[in-house]
Write a structure and sequence with these properties.
Largest sheet of chain B: 7 strands, mixed
GO molecular function, one term (chain E): ATP binding
CATH topology of the largest domain in chain C: ABC transporter involved in vitamin B12 uptake, BtuC
Shape of chain B: globular
Strand order of the largest sheet of chain C: 1-2
Shape of chain C: globular
Strand content of chain C: under 5%
Distance between the termini of chain B: 23 Å
Number of domains of chain C: 2
Order of helices and strands of chain C: HHHHHHEHHHHEHHHHHHEEH
Oligomer: heteropentamer
Family (chain E): Belongs to the ABC transporter superfamily.
Organism (chain E): Variovorax ureilyticus
Helix content of chain C: over 70%
Protein name (chain E): ABC transporter ATP-binding protein
Keywords (chain E): Amino-acid transport, ATP-binding, Cell membrane, Membrane, Nucleotide-binding, Transport
Mean pLDDT of chain C: 86
Largest sheet of chain C: 2 strands, antiparallel
Radius of gyration of chain C: 25 Å
Low-confidence stretches of chain C: 1-13
Structural class of chain C: mainly alpha
Mean pLDDT of chain B: 89
Number of strands of chain C: 4
Chains: A alpha/beta (about 260), B alpha/beta (about 400), C mainly alpha (about 425), D mainly alpha (about 325), E alpha/beta (about 230)
Distance between the termini of chain C: 25 Å
Helix content of chain B: 25-40%
Bound molecules: adenosine-5'-triphosphate, leucine, magnesium ion
Chain lengths: ~260, ~400, ~425, ~325, ~230
């Protein structure tokens, strides 16, 4: 009912909590992300950033609280149901289909959204729209040359790119990326940020990152998660200036990160 | 036909659950053909082609094809009525579809009564007594044992075990209505590792006798468990006490408690006993498939009578043929091709004296306690034999 | 959109491209002429068995190779397909249902998929070891229960039928074995085609994805359980067709035979031996299965020993199955390097012969002592008479074996080295092409 | 059900359960730690029995009780060293298949050496006869001995797992073998020892099982799948689970034998008329006692559906 | 203490290290820098006996080339791999337990030291390591290797995925190790931290060492930095 009056948010978390056994990891998170925003989530290790992603994407069910996607409750739904509602995520640890080629990996990501569900009465090769979309994607993520290479045989950076590719393939308009640039060199990271920017134009984006360069380069807003709570949610400048954030997360490295700003 | 070599295919398991039995039987046939080839009435030589059918009806049909390719026109088989049925079925079709290439089947041990009743076939001849006949003899014996009052029936849950139970109940009801069936159990074939619960149940039921059609480890383990639990005053009436492995399992502990019904036993005297002893000496195993002797005798005499080894000519001769086998005068009943022969009740006991042939080196043997003339065990048939119209 | 470089026509499925036409025509020709070359009645049954086993092994591979599901209970669907098919034949024979024989395999297929729908609902909820164990349990249950319901399963004897019923189909009665063979061959061809087509459909591809990484599949919109379930049903359908054909072929179906764990095991074994990674692997597997089951046991009493040996060595040295050996060589050939191996292959074969002969002679003599001693000490081994009581026979066999082993090892070492070189060159070549 | 029958059945159930545990403890070790579905496990069991038969003929049963398992263990270790290890890197299915092949080989070799029929492997005099008599039913010493051995196995495997890091090393090595080596553990040797140990346990089970029951070539196949049931129902990675599952299966199965009830009798009791013409009569008429020996499989399926980790398991795959 | 001379290493048939020579002295922190793919991780693996290597490799006067990894570990070299390789199904505590060699007696490090260093790990000690956060896993790997009481510890990109504050912490701990007389071979991407704490810096390029000197001299040598480190 409240949704009718309020403007619907792309993602809205209300009083979200999650415990594993006795330990409460997420301790009441309220967060509303407007459609089209790019939000970075930062916080110390083990603060619960990935867990938050898991709760939103359906990998885990919250202990209590609500998750809303475009105003619709999605907590407790299975990952594929949430995905069908237009939310897609990538993983901190690369999570693709190792024995399929780059092209097939991406095409798998495309299929459902184009309505080719469990069909076994049509040939993939005849699904023009799927193939066109895949072809487009493959160039977007810069893997055109590796079209028929099996995913296992890609280099780490290429796998990360593929990971992003599979994530955006379904055309979801809410995208969650978990440490997309981890393990990449500076050059690769820079290239990657522009890639992410480019493929998420007009979409709602949530990323988890430790690399302050990336965070400040990518985000319109930053949410700081500490010990399972959001202690700040504001513009980059405001967050950087926030003493609690400095205390809890940035330490003296702020200077470093600023220096490394791109 | 003199000097001719007749190829006889033997299709039975040499691997799997019944490998030991099959191997023993193949040796029996090889050993006996050697004997028969020396003094064959028809002057022909037998050649046994042993093929492993893995106890599987499907493999049996393939094996049959291969046997026919090798020129065999006689088939021997005995283990498992499933395979028997497969052969009958295949031969019915083959013999109808390929005149001039008819094949004849001698069944030496598959005992499902259906094979000579609803499923009887002109090309099939059975030498063992079927389940109903053995039960006829067995219950006739039990009828005269006044101390039998409570009977427990246990069997493998497949056609053989079910039939044993069925005939046991029918026969006892007819011959000794006062006998109580205090329990009946069917257990899955070759699945039970521990028979103690069954023994406990038998004991609790107060039974004084157990009837079982079990064979192989299902029998060995059953009797072992009974011995272990000290079930001393219960008699076991069994079908397959001599089959490889069972005597070893029974050993001394079962002495005096196990009765077997069969068309023969190891202490028959005469040629069969001599051959048995020689067999044991040569192979360190017992010759218990004595119907092999009957099979070879029957074929030899039929060849001689038919003056041919062509199954088409031999089959009519076999119908109703009377001949003498190791266990006396027998007749291949014309109506259903079931051999009519006398049956023996034997008891597991110490070997020696008149009955010296110990089984599997246990020092024990099946001692004959009663002989029944063929007519006693004879059971009616419902067979409507379809003979090829010639 | 500007990045689009290839036109849609590039992907279009062109059923009539040259390579496909050649391969499928060859397959058809082999199916057609095989019985003209191998004429004995045993050969004909073997060919018939191969025909439906190809379907069964391919259907098994939908689970194993394409879906990563290790099933120990595939015989359930084949066997139940057989039973329903045979009951349908009996009904049709009695004039109950007017189903022509040519459609009986479809009945089997429907039965197979019906039971796959029934049991698959629980089995496919899980994957990995859990899946394997559930199928093992269900397999054992169905097999044991079958013996307890003689009404439907015909008890020990099974259910028999006569496939010659109804009006002849264009003068074909399906009495003679070779007519049945051609029926099987037609089904084999069509089913192989269909299953191949399946690999190119969305469901088929997602099934591969589920095999590789089930978790991720959930995040691209698919319900993995559903994917496995559908694949399971499709596999059940083809398994049932295979079962129906088996019923027609044997005209008898038997629970002990067609439902037991051993049967399921052999589908697994031979699918794997043929090569689960490639579509055509199971076809090779099925052919081998028939050879192993029918021929090997007739050639030698030691078939289980040979079987075990071959199996252990195959898994150890060619874990991708025979198909992978073929593909490896094709790859070498594609890079034009196969020529240098012909000589070595020849040498391998030549040196393997004495090893095999020597070993087999010894094994056969041992078995002879155990199984055929009733026939005297001599045996016929490849037209040579061996005498188990003579030292010379043993010594000779051992000598041949040892000499062969020595030579074989020498050749093998050389082969391994050269093969390594060739692979290196190929890798380099691939890198170079990628750069270009 | 009388008290008498109840007590005896309980005893039978427990002792059968312990027999199952004895058969499967080695498999638990290998399967739940190394993830290898060792299809040759019961072949090692059979080898143990045959070797003990031969050895006890020469030096007597008691020495054989130690020698035979050691021999079987050595064979297991050798198999791991020369065959399984090569296959390990290809994954679990090939591992399983190679043990499958091995089971064929062992069976054939056993038949070649000892023949195809039962061998007269008997109990030593110390184990013959009853240990005690309860309500007129004897409880044999041999069965008690099996129970004792099973408990000793439980104890020793438990000590092995809790007092040493072997279990951890193996589990870790399944994931990152190189890392475990880099931490200073000799991974190949640990694998070899565990596989050999599992085989030795199977061998020991054979030594005592072979003479209590029968020693024949079919003995391996006959216990083939039931022991997988025990391990899986108990829960992968859980020794206690396997123990619990063995006892549970043993007891349930034993008592099930006593129950001559069927769905038909149940329905009749509820006043539903069930006759031979009722649909599904053969199924309805099947008594619990008739299906008792296959109940474990039902158990397996149900457990896996409702609790895939097994009774006390910690992991699913 | 550790001496590499003309080490060549191969992945299967591909030649990755083309003659690497350097040494590490007792109680020294040596940073091994270089671009992605320059062969730093391979060098670490070569020392640990995890890849096929040729050349001369000595540790405490012993030839350790071609020794098995577990033998090398027992001789006192600890290795923290770049992709963490935690054992996901084991608990944190069990992971640490596996780091110990033998009974762990006489080791410089105890569980309490580790938990003191990263209290977060103590909180999570009975949790399966697989569900730890990325950063926690990184801490765990480091501690696991320390439990084996090495005299030289090779750390491959320890700060990856760590929050900036923790990165500083790790830097401090590496200094502590040095104070306890343990040598460190630090493979790092983040120049700043590496330059801060190391005594010596090595730069690797195309499978061999192209610079060997103090951090200060590296800072001064813009040419080297430009060619081998920066973009
Ligand atoms: N399934 C689980 N069971 C128990 N604890 C868990 C589980 N999943 C996560 N945790 C715990 O929750 C805490 C938060 O983990 P999470 O992965 O969300 O951290 P994070 O903020 O992403 O940290 P990092 O930046 O290091 O990746 C960690 O302490 C982790 O151990
Ligand atoms: N397992 C492998 N098989 C084949 N080549 C490999 C393998 N691992 C690394 N390489 C190659 O070896 C070279 C050196 O790799 P290495 O991992 O040592 O680099 P690095 O300096 O540690 O870089 P990074 O920053 O990516 O960790 C690279 O070209 C890489 O592609
Ligand atoms: C030989 C016997 C043990 C088998 C028996 N003839 C049967 O049909 O089951
Ligand atoms: Mg995280
Ligand atoms: Mg690296």
């Amino acid at each position: 009912m409240s949704n009718v009056q309020n403007k619907t948010h792309a993602i809205e978390l209300k009083g979200l909590r999650k415990s594993f056994g006795k330990t409460e990891i997420i301790r009441g998170v309220d967060l509303a992300v407007e459609a089209g925003d790019r939000v970075a989530i930062i916080g110390p290790n083990g603060a619960g950033k990935s867990t938050l992603f898991n709760l939103i994407s359906g990998r885990l069910a919250p202990t209590s609280g609500e998750v809303l996607l475009n105003g619709k409750r999605i907590d407790g739904m299975r990952p594929f149901e949430i995905n069908r509602l237009g939310l897609s995520r990538s993983f901190q640890i690369t999570n693709i289909f190792p024995k399929l080629s780059v092209f097939e990996n991406l095409r798998c990501g495309v299929l459902w959204s184009l309505g080719y569900r469990y069909t076994f009465l049509r040939f993939l090769s005849n699904l023009d729209d799927a193939n066109e979309r895949t072809e487009e994607l493959i160039h977007q993520v810069g893997l055109g040359k590796k079209r028929d290479v099996l995913a296992v045989n890609l280099t780490y950076a290429e796998q990360r790119a593929l990971e992003i590719g599979v994530t955006i393939a379904g055309g979801a308009d809410v995208i969650l990326l978990d440490e997309p640039t981890a393990g990449m060199s500076k050059t690769e990271t820079q290239h990657f940020i522009s890639l992410i920017k480019q493929v998420t134009v007009g979409k709602t984006l949530l990323t988890v990152e430790h690399d302050m360069g990336v965070v400040f380069g990518l985000a319109d807003k930053i949410a700081v998660v500490v010990y399972g709570e959001v202690i700040a949610f504001d513009t980059p400048a405001a967050v950087r200036a926030n003493p609690r954030v400095q205390e809890a997360y940035l330490g003296s490295a702020v200077a470093d990160a600023q220096g490394a700003g791109h | 036909q003199k000097g001719e070599t007749v190829k006889v295919a033997w299709l039975d398991p040499l691997s799997g659950l019944m490998a030991a039995v099959g191997t023993n039987q193949l040796k029996t046939y090889q050993f006996l053909t050697e004997e028969f080839n020396k003094k064959n009435a028809a002057g022909v030589k037998f050649e046994i082609i042993g093929i492993d059918n893995k106890l599987s009806p499907q493999e049996t049909t393939s094996a049959l094809r291969s046997a026919m390719d090798q020129g065999a026109r006689y088939v021997l088989q005995g283990n498992g009525s499933g395979a028997a049925l497969a052969i009958i079925d295949a031969l019915e079709k083959n013999n109808a579809r390929n005149p001039g290439k008819e094949v004849l089947y001698v069944n030496y041990a598959a005992v499902d009564p259906d094979l000579t009743n609803s499923k009887c076939s002109y090309w099939h001849f059975r030498l063992d007594a079927d389940t109903s006949m053995k039960m006829e003899a067995l219950t006739t014996f039990m009828k005269d044992q006044p101390d039998i009052k409570k009977v427990y029936i246990i069997g493998q849950n497949y056609s053989h075990g079910v039939q044993v139970a069925k005939y046991a109940k029918e026969n006892l009801a007819r011959k000794r209505p006062d006998i109580q069936i205090v329990g009946e159990d069917l257990h899955p074939l070759a699945q039970v590792r521990d028979f103690a619960p069954y023994i406990a149940k038998i004991k609790a039921s107060g039974a004084d006798s157990v009837i079982t059609g079990n064979w192989g480890s299902d029998l060995a383990l059953l009797i072992k468990a009974a011995n272990d639990a000290g079930l001393n005053n219960v008699k076991f009436f069994v079908y397959y006490g001599s089959v490889s492995g069972t005597p070893t399992a029974m050993g001394a502990a079962s002495a005096g408690k196990v009765y077997q019904v069969a068309y023969g036993h190891t202490n028959m005297g005469g040629e069969i006993q001599r051959l048995g002893t020689e067999f044991t000496k040569r192979f360190k195993e017992d010759l218990y498939t004595q119907s092999a002797y009957t099979a070879l005798t029957m074929l030899s005499e039929a060849f001689a009578k038919a003056k041919s080894t062509d199954p088409v000519k031999v089959a009519p001769v076999l119908e109703g043929m009377r001949f003498k086998s190791f266990n006396g005068d027998v007749e291949m009943r014309k109506t259903d091709h079931q051999l009519q022969q006398g049956l023996y009740i034997t008891k597991w006991d110490k070997a020696g004296g008149k009955y010296p042939v110990d089984e599997e080196g246990t020092g024990y043997t099946f001692v004959p306690v009663k002989y029944f003339e063929p007519y006693v065990a004879s059971t009616p048939t419902t067979c409507e034999m379809k003979r090829p119209s010639s | 959109m500007s990045t689009m470089t290839t036109s849609p026509a590039y992907y279009r499925f062109k059923p009539w491209n040259l390579g496909r036409i050649i391969i499928w025509s060859l397959f058809a020709i082999v199916l057609i002429v095989a019985p003209m070359i191998f004429k004995s009645s045993l050969a004909l049954t073997m060919l018939s068995q191969m025909g439906y086993l190809i379907i069964i092994c391919l259907s098994y591979n939908i689970l194993l190779g394409q879906g990563g599901m290790l099933s120990f209970g595939h015989a359930v669907y084949v066997g139940l397909g057989s039973f329903i098919a045979i009951h349908a034949m009996n009904l049709a024979g009695k004039g109950g249902w007017p189903i022509p024989l040519v459609l009986i395999p479809i009945v089997g297929g429907l039965a197979g998929s019906f039971f796959a729908i029934l049991f698959g609902y629980v089995t496919t909820k899980k994957s990995g070891t859990t899946f394997a164990m559930i199928t093992l349990g269900i397999g054992e249950l169905v097999a044991s229960m079958a013996l307890m319901f003689p009404g439907f399963f015909g008890g020990e004897g099974g259910v028999t039928t006569d496939r010659v019923y109804g009006k002849p189909f264009f003068g074909i009665t399906f009495g003679p074995q070779n007519q049945v063979y051609y029926l099987i061959a037609v089904y084999c061809f069509i089913c192989t085609g269909l299953m191949y087509a399946f690999t190119g459909t969305p469901l088929g591809r997602i099934l591969n994805a589920v095999r590789d990484n089930p978790e991720r599949v959930e995040f691209i919109g698919y319900n993995t359980q559903r994917v496995r379930y559908f694949a399971f049903i499709i596999a059940g359908f083809f398994a049932g067709i295979g079962g129906g054909l088996a019923a027609i072929n044997f005209e008898i179906v038997n629970a002990a035979d067609s439902l037991n764990a051993f049967r399921s095991g052999s589908y697994l074994l031979f699918t794997f031996l043929g090569g689960a990674v490639f579509f055509f692997g199971p076809i090779i597997g099925a052919v081998l299965l028939v050879f192993a089951a029918v021929l090997l046991s007739e050639l030698t009493k030691a078939w289980q020993l040979y079987f075990g040996l071959v199996f252990v060595f195959m898994v150890m040295f060619a874990p991708g199955g025979i198909a992978s050996l073929i593909m490896m060589n094709l790859r070498v050939a594609k890079f034009g390097k196969l020529n240098r191996f012909w000589g070595l292959y020849g040498a391998l074969v030549l040196t393997a012969i004495p090893v095999v002969i020597g070993a087999a002679a010894i094994i056969e003599m041992i078995y002879h002592i155990q199984l055929n001693s009733a026939l005297g000490p001599t045996l016929d081994f490849m037209r040579v008479t061996l005498d188990t009581s003579s030292f010379m026979s043993w010594f000779g066999a051992a000598l041949i074996l040892l000499v062969g082993l020595g030579l074989l090892e020498a050749v093998r070492r050389r082969f391994v080295r050269l093969w390594g070189h060739a692979q290196e060159e190929i890798e380099a070549e691939i890198k170079r092409r990628e750069m270009a | 059900m009388t008290v008498e029958f109840f007590v005896i059945s309980l005893l039978n159930g427990v002792s059968y359960g312990l027999l199952l545990f004895m058969l499967s403890s080695g498999l638990t070790l290998i399967f739940s730690m190394m993830g290898v579905l060792n299809f040759a496990h019961t072949s090692f069991y059979m080898l143990g029995a045959y070797l003990a038969y031969t050895i006890s003929g020469v030096v007597g049963f008691w020495p054989a009780l130690f020698i035979a398992p050691l021999l079987v263990g050595a064979m297991g270790a050798a198999f791991e060293r020369y065959s399984l290890r090569r296959v390990h890197k290809y994954g679990h299915v090939p591992e399983l298949l190679v043990t499958f092949g091995l089971s064929f080989l062992i069976l054939e070799v056993v038949q070649l050496v000892w023949g195809r029929s039962t061998v007269p492997y008997g109990l030593p005099t110390q184990l013959q006869g009853p240990l005690f008599t309860l309500f007129g039913t004897q409880f044999p010493k041999s069965r008690s001995f099996i129970m004792l051995v099973a408990l000793l196995m439980l104890l020793s495997v438990w000590l092995l797992l809790t007092r040493t890091r072997i279990g951890l090393v193996i589990q870790a090595a399944l994931k990152h073998p190189e890392m475990v080596e880099a931490l200073g553990h000799n991974v190949p040797r640990v694998f070899m020892l565990v596989f050999g140990g599992g085989a030795a346990l199977a061998g020991l089970a054979g030594v005592v099982g072979g003479n209590t029951y029968v020693t024949e070539p079919a003995m391996a196949a006959s216990v083939g799948s039931i022991i997988f049931v025990v391990v899986v129902v108990g829960g992968l990675g859980s020794l206690a689970g396997a123990f619990l599952a063995s006892l549970l299966i043993g007891i349930v199965q034993t008592f099930a034998v006593a129950l001559d009830h069927s769905m038909a009798t149940g329905l009749r009791a509820m006043g539903v008329a069930v006759t031979e013409s009722t649909f599904g009569y053969p199924l309805l008429n099947l008594t619990i006692s008739q299906v008792a020996p296959i109940l474990p499989y039902l158990f397996l399926v149900l457990i896996l559906i409702f609790r895939p980790k097994g009774l006390l398991g910690t992991r699913e795959d | 203490m550790l001496k590499l001379h003309d080490i060549h290493a191969y992945y299967g048939k591909s030649h990755v290290l083309h003659g690497v020579s350097f040494d590490v002295r007792p109680g020294e922190i040596v940073a091994l820098l270089g671009r992605n793919g320059s062969g730093r991780s391979t060098t670490a693996k070569a020392i640990m006996g995890l890849v096929h290597a040729e050349g001369k490799l000595h540790w405490k006067e012993q030839d350790i080339l071609r020794r098995k990894a577990y033998e090398i570990a027992h001789l006192g070299i600890g290795y923290v791999p770049e992709n963490r390789d935690i054992f996901p199904k084991l608990t944190v505590h069990q992971n640490l337990l596996l780091g110990q060699k033998g009974s762990g007696k006489g080791s410089r490090w105890s569980f309490d030291d580790m938990y003191g260093m990263f209290p977060r790990l103590k909180e999570r000690q009975h949790t399966e390591a697989g569900v730890l956060s990325g950063g926690e896993q990184q801490m765990l790997t480091l501690c696991r290797t320390l439990m084996g009481d090495p005299d030289l510890i090779i750390i491959d990109e320890p700060t990856e995925g760590l929050a900036p504050k923790i990165v500083e912490l790790v830097g401090q701990y590496l200094r502590t190790l040095k104070d306890k007389g343990i040598s460190v071979l630090l493979i790092e991407q983040k120049l700043t931290i590496a330059m801060q704490i190391s005594d010596r810096a090595l730069v690797m390029g195309h499978g061999s060492i192209v610079f060997d000197g103090t951090p200060d001299s590296l800072r001064a040598d813009a040419a080297i930095r430009k060619e081998w480190l920066e973009v």
